[in-house]
Design goal:
This protein is mostly beta strands. It is built from 4 helices and 16 strands. The protein is flat, with a radius of gyration of 22 Å.
Length: 201
């Protein structure tokens, strides 16, 4: 590229925009509800739970959360994403803005409250169970050559394994970043998972 009349060359490494994260077994919470801003970075606090880590730190409705452990809060799901890998009892550092002043506090996360039987993935879809059982039946077509290197256990690993597919290559040499089960565990904050079996004749 050219900048101020000079030709500059940069070397970059492209990576996937999302990779499966380690999910907390007992997820920690701050005790706030917040919504993303339409005109800037951060999430505006709408509710602070009484006697929560956030309330004890002095957070108030109207404050704007900016970062959690230096993780910028740029979208409506950012706070959930930032906390999903932290266990209850862990300490996080939160940067927020009150008026024109940027402040920071550290807080020990509280255990997430028990959920009911509804497991919500997004505002568009609610699942009624934390477990989905799936049977996968292999079908071959005459015009598609059979790949003898792909076994039933490879398909089971692809669909149902937990934390074993990240950062490795599959049997066809492609890099993988998680199984189907890993994906749903990630977006549900470990509240939903897959179990099942692959059947190949």
């Amino acid at each position: 590229m050219k900048q101020s009349g000079k030709t500059l060359e940069y070397r970059v490494t492209l990576v996937p925009p999302s990779r499966p994260m380690h999910l907390a077994e007992q997820r920690g919470v701050l005790g706030v509800q917040a919504s993303s801003l339409d005109d800037g970075e951060g999430m505006r606090v709408t509710t602070v739970t009484e006697d929560s880590p956030a309330s004890r730190a002095g957070l108030k409705p109207g404050d704007v959360l900016l970062k959690v452990n230096h993780y910028p809060l740029l979208s409506s799901s950012a706070l959930n994403d930032a906390l999903s890998s932290h266990e209850a009892g862990e300490t996080v550092t939160v940067a927020y803005r009150r008026g024109e002043e940027v402040r920071e506090f550290s807080a020990e996360l509280a255990p997430a409250p028990e959920r009911d039987t509804d497991v919500q993935f997004s505002a568009r879809r609610t699942w009624k169970t934390p477990l989905y059982r799936l049977a996968v039946i292999g079908v071959e077509f005459e015009d598609t050559p059979h790949n003898e290197h792909i076994r039933a256990q490879d398909w089971e690993r692809f669909f149902f394994s937990t934390n074993v597919c990240a950062g490795v290559s599959n049997v066809t040499g492609q890099a993988t970043y998680g199984s189907v089960n890993d994906y749903y565990r990630e977006i549900s904050c470990a509240q939903f998972h897959f179990e099942g079996k692959v059947l190949i004749g």
